[in-house]
Amino acid sequence: MSLRQEQQLKQTQKLSPLQMQVIKLVELTSVELEDKIKQEIEDNPALEIGATDSWEGSDEDEGFADDPAADSVTQEEMMKGDYMSEDDLPDYPLNAVSDRNPVQYFETNFSDEKSLNESLLEQIGLRKLDPTKKKIAEYIIGNLDENGYLQRDLHSISNDLLFQQGMDIPVSELQDTLLVIQELDPAGVGARSLQECLVLQLKRRQASAANKLAIKILSDYFEEFSKKHYEKISRQLNIERDDMREVIAEIVSLNPKPGNAVGNSMDVVRNNITPDFIVEIENGEINMWLNNYNIPELKVNRDFSEMMQGYSKNKDSMSAADKQAMLFMKQKLDSAKWFIDAVKQRQNTLLKTMNAIIAIQYDFFLTEDETMLKPMILKDVAEKTGFHLTTISRVSSSKYVQTGAGVYPLKFFFSEAMQNDAGEDVSSREIKFILKEGIDAEDSSKPLTDDQLTRILNDKGYVIARRTVAKYREQLNIPVARLRKKI
Asked: So what CATH class is 417-484?
């Protein structure tokens, strides 16, 4: 076997510290950014709140870089990629919010309603439980999802308690504690399946013939009932048709998502959203700005930078300890400047992205009529802004915009494009709206099949396949025709 040397030329892209900062900040909401700035100010003595102060480092401080790789990256290179050049950085203060009343930014229907988690913990506090059992109950409650279900198995929770809390709790004791939680309100909370949830609710109700039958059917014939095989169940249990109607009515009246009976944690979060953008209509024109009310102006600490300059002028006579101190100061100064630039680029990136969304969805923002929404995907906004797809995805994944009618997640404005028989693009949201209208208006004793729904849409001019209709129906959480049939 012969060995030979080959020379290869490879081009790799290495993100600068500034670019990495921008990527991280773009993903943050305005509330998270506020927290991030507070943390950065605490951690970096070279950064402080105040009107922007320009500081240019001395040319003599070269050679004391904290990161040789970063030092080799020029300012011009640091601004390349998805983000704007230094010339594009906004020259306005970071907290500029126009002359509007800042109170308007937070009129987002805040709720005083307790979350499901808070309600259950309050009820547990009223129970006479020993400290260990109370701690177990609190841990289980913390694992309930927004609908009130316990989706994790008790063995996993037992392992969690052992490794995280140092508590060796057998599954049997967890089961006993779960039974206590299942006695709390709302009825059905703490269930591990829809079947258990519905049975728990029935057992809380006053005993009656229909109630007892309903419990038996859900306990022993849940699969048949969920598939609406009512005649089969009636035959096997010898139930009269009228009695079966009462049982169905009893079960249908139950709440499959008991967590929604209380102001569940997700509702409280949604009601307490701080929007990242504000959109208003004035004299028929759309005005948009960033919600920066709580975002402070940032600057480099002048005393810190002057101290750094003093060190750099005397570096020839420095001791090893002084050089170490200067290296530390340069690291902090670089970090402060990168952070300030990154926050500015984040703001500019968000503004440019939101402006592109408004330009595409102009008719919606002017009217707030959902039927006016146009098909829009990440690529459309990327092409309009010049940003990479991943940048648009980061901006839109967790940001919200407040309009006159309410608060919308940016993801709300994205949808697939379909075509009608005239070759015009229509939004998949528009098709879903028509699909739901058709199902809502159907004869419940003869629900429309996916084939029939496809023909209806085709007759209305929407070129769509049956499999796409089935996909949209599932996305709308609408069951198949046989499960929608009512006797």
From this structure: mainly alpha
